[in-house]
Design goal:
Elements: H1 19-32, H2 35-52
């Protein structure tokens, strides 16, 4: 049985003949986007990655403590 999913009507479904054609279209799309849109997309990807891996993006500084242990030579 086929299940219907509500899709955003502003989206377009494209069918490509090859991965190379898809890559060319993706590159053409991102070259046409303004700088601000590219930066927002990068920020959204970084936030999604952080959520998936349980990383707190609002934390100040590293969560691990770095320790140096000097070895004696002898």
């Amino acid at each position: 049985m086929q299940e219907w999913v509500a899709a955003d009507p502003s989206r377009t479904i494209r069918i490509f003949e090859s991965f190379e054609e898809q890559d060319r279209e993706t590159i053409r799309y991102w070259k046409a986007q303004p700088f601000g849109a590219k930066m927002r997309a990068i920020a959204e990807m970084a936030e999604a990655f952080s959520r998936q891996h349980g990383i707190d993006t609002d934390a100040q500084g590293p969560r691990r403590v770095t320790r140096r242990i000097q070895r004696t030579r002898g």
